[in-house]
Design brief:
By secondary structure, this protein is an alpha/beta fold. The protein has 16 helices and 11 strands. It binds glutamine.
């Protein structure tokens, strides 16, 4: 019986098994088949993955040395381009469209001998928090199928959660990797803005978008991040410096300076049991010699509005390319003129949430409203960046909840857009400021669902973020139910 634990152990298994990659691919293909009702995948590359596994098994027989992701089975969110494979952003407007080039992230995975097993379901154009806005239908949380997996990278999260691949890629514009990781009980990282090239990632809001990684443990995140990050001639916003070496082992004696925002922990929307668990954890860290301090943060109420003004503005511009002419869905209705043609093609192709955001973004950018909304939101963004710089002068890490509640029930928030948007309160901060963030699965709620702790470090400091996360996973992971202090 094959079982997957970590890339390291898998590579040890391959060293002892000549047909190890084939065994692994067969295992994951049957897991995908068994979990079909979860609806995590939009395409499954069975034959291709089996063929590649066979080639890698043969390659290993010829040569002992294996590349970093040799035979590692990876699923990618359906917004990441893989040459000659369909990429749809879970939208009717792109159904049937095939990528004409590889995204940099995919190219780097393939260059390290990874096996891509399929593409994952998501919210349309990565807009959503529940994976309920998909042309393929919603994805189910494998722990409790009456719950959402989170979004927008819900399929990628469930693919790892339900053991259908080893690691997966998602994208995180406002929390779309960290929040589904939180809801599914796995690890999800959004690196520093620009750490991973956005070349070949379908754009939602370009100054926020970042590819992220899901895995079961921090070490696998580290390996994948090392492979796919780094400068790229195709993306001028990619960070030019090479990432620091992540591979150093954790220093168990290191004492961290940890900040948390009091307003965030005391926020009325935060589930009591989640806040109690985090407070308890902070007390334990303090008792273990770490410096833990509450920091004032009076901008909390502004971050969700600023996020939705800025991202919809960018989306309205980015999504204008889907015009029914160059690619994607084209209306078959008789049309009177070009404007009518655009109107029909776009109304038929885009789902409701995407249409709403395009309208909102167009509104906040329009003459007369630009200063009232767009400019003001940019100013909030600037203040958040200044605040972040100030906090990291004195601290190594900021911790927050990842989400105010555990996974929502399917349909719970679909009629209340504001409630849905407000649930992004803890994740959008890292995207507005460009800092890296991770959700570490530490806790289990008395309702049976998992939840994580979100940690963030200064820009480009993924090394500290990953080391701190390892410490959390090794020492503070607790699934014990913590009593609610009412
Ligand atoms: N829930 C957020 C939104 O709907 C985050 C999306 C994302 O990170 N792609 O915008």
């Amino acid at each position: 019986m094959f079982s997957f634990d970590s890339i390291k152990k898998y590579h040890a298994f391959l060293a002892a098994n000549a047909d190890g990659c084939t065994t692994a691919v067969n295992h994951f293909l049957s897991a995908i088949e068994k979990g079909k009702e979860l609806n995590a995948f939009t395409n499954i590359y069975s034959e291709e993955a089996s063929q590649r596994a066979k080639e890698l098994d043969e390659k290993r027989a010829r040569n002992d040395s294996v590349k970093k992701l040799h035979g590692v089975i990876i699923a990618i969110k359906d917004v990441i381009c893989y040459k000659d494979h369909e990429v749809t952003a879970a939208s009717g407007i792109l159904k049937g469209f095939k990528s004409i080039y590889n995204s940099t992230a995919v190219q780097r995975l393939l260059d390290e001998d990874a096996i891509i097993i399929g593409t994952c379901n998501c919210d349309e154009f990565a807009m959503g928090s529940t994976n309920e806005n998909s042309v393929y239908g919603n994805v189910l949380n494998a722990i409790d199928t009456t719950k959402v997996p989170g979004g927008s990278s819900g399929g990628s999260a469930v693919a790892v959660q339900a053991g259908m691949c080893m690691i997966s890629l998602g994208s995180d514009t406002g929390g779309s990797v960290r929040q589904p990781a939180d809801f599914c009980g796995i690890v999800g990282i959004k690196p520093t803005y620009g750490r991973i090239s956005r070349y070949g990632l379908i754009a939602y809001a370009s100054s926020f978008d970042q590819i992220g990684i899901f895995a079961n443990n921090i070490e696998d995140i580290e390996t994948a991040l090392e492979v796919i990050s780094g400068p790229d001639d195709f993306d001028s916003t990619a960070i030019q410096q090479l990432p620091k070496d992540n591979s150093s082992d954790i220093n168990v004696n290191k004492k961290y300076r940890i900040a948390y925002f009091k307003e965030a922990i005391e926020h009325p929307s935060l589930d009591k049991e989640i806040s109690n668990s985090i407070i308890e954890l902070l007390n334990k860290l303090k008792a273990d010699g770490h410096h833990v301090e509450a920091v004032d943060f009076n901008l909390l109420e502004y971050i969700v509005p600023a996020y939705y003004v800025l991202t919809t503005a960018e989306a309205s511009s980015n999504l204008s390319r889907f015009d029914g002419v160059r690619f994607g869905h084209r209306t078959k209705e008789p049309v009177a003129n070009l404007a009518d043609f655009y109107k029909h093609s776009r109304s038929e192709g885009f789902g409701k949430e995407v249409q709403k955001r395009i309208l909102l973004g167009t509104f906040v950018l329009s003459a007369g409203y630009y200063d009232a909304y767009y400019s003001k939101a940019q100013k909030v963004r600037r203040m958040l960046v200044d605040k972040t710089i100030a906090v990291f002068k004195d601290f190594d890490v900021i911790v927050l909840p990842t989400s105010p509640t555990t996974a929502f029930t399917i349909g719970e928030k679909t009629d209340d857009a504001i409630a849905m948007y407000l649930a992004d309160i803890y994740t959008v901060f890292a995207n507005l400021t460009g800092i890296p963030g991770i959700s570490v699965p530490l806790f289990k709620h008395s309702n049976g669902l998992p939840f994580g702790l979100q940690a963030m470090t200064n820009k480009q400091d993924e090394v500290t973020l990953l080391q701190f996360s390892k410490l959390l996973m090794q020492r503070y992971k607790t699934y014990q139910h913590l009593a609610i202090n009412e």
